[in-house]
Amino acid sequence: MPLRDLLLALGVVLVWGLNFVAIKWGVDEISPFLLTALRYLGCALPAVFFIRRPAVGWPILIVYGLTVGVLQFSFLFTAMRLGMPAGLASLVMQMQVFFTLGLAMLFLDERPTVPQLAGAGIALVGLVTIGAEHIGGAVLLPLLMTLVAAGFWAISNIVTKRAGKVDMFAFVIWGSLVPPLPMLALSLLFEGPQALAALASISPQAIFSVLFIAYGSTLLGYGAWAVLLGRHPAGLVAPFTLLVPVVGFAAAFVLLGEMVTPLEIAGSLLILAGLGLNIFGPRLVARLRAA
I need a surface site. Which of 68, 79, 97, 264 has the fewest CB within 10 A? Predict the structure, then answer.
C-alpha cells in the first residue's frame, strides 16, 4: 500500500475511533432519536443534490436506511445515553463482524472457515468476560443494547451485499434519506417536543458532535473507505478496522476520562484476538496449504 493510502486508512481509523467520543458528547445534550435524525439529515443534505442515485431500487435503499439508521443508531445512541462507555462501545460494535458471518451463512449461503469460527468463539468468550463485569450493574442494559446495534449493523451489511456492486458512497448518501422522518416522529412520540426545543440551547461541543458524526464519520469516513476498497483488495484494507477500538479506548481515556477494569481489558484483548483470527486466519491457512 502506498504511503498516501496508508495515511488515508489511518485517517479513517482515527475518525471512526473519535466518533464514539463525539457520540458521547452529542447524547449528553441531544436526545438519542433526535441525534440520529440530525446525523442522517446532515449525511443526506446537501450531498443528495450532487451525487447521482446508485443503480439500485428504492426497496433496498429503504431497508438499508431502516436497519443502519433507524435501528442500529437508535440502539447505539440510546445505549450511550444510558451510560455505555465510549471506548467499550467502539469495541463491542465490532461484534458485527461475527453477526455478519452468521447471517451470511443463513441468507447468502456463505460458509465460514474454521479460523473464522474459532475467532468467533474467542470473541464470544471475551464478550462474556466483559458482561460478567456488569451483571446486575447499570451498564448491563446499555451493553446488551450495543450488541443489538451491532446486530442491526450486520443486517445492513447483508442488505448491502444484496445491493450488488454499486457506488457505496452514493448508496450511503441516498440511504441517509430514509432515517430522518421516522426518527423525528419517534423523537416527538417518545422524547417529546422539549427535545426539539432543547436544540436552541445546546453547546458548541454538541454542535461539533453532530457535524463530526454526520460529515466526518459518515461522509468522509465511508467515502475514504470506499476509495481504499476500490484501490486495494478487501483483505488488505479490512484489518485496519482492528485499530478503531484502540483509538476509541485511547480517545475515551484522554477526552472523557474513562477508565477500564482488568476484566474489561482481558475481555477486550480476547475480542481483538478473535477479530484478528477472523481476518488473518483464512489467508494464513491458504498460504500454509499452498506451501
Answer: 264
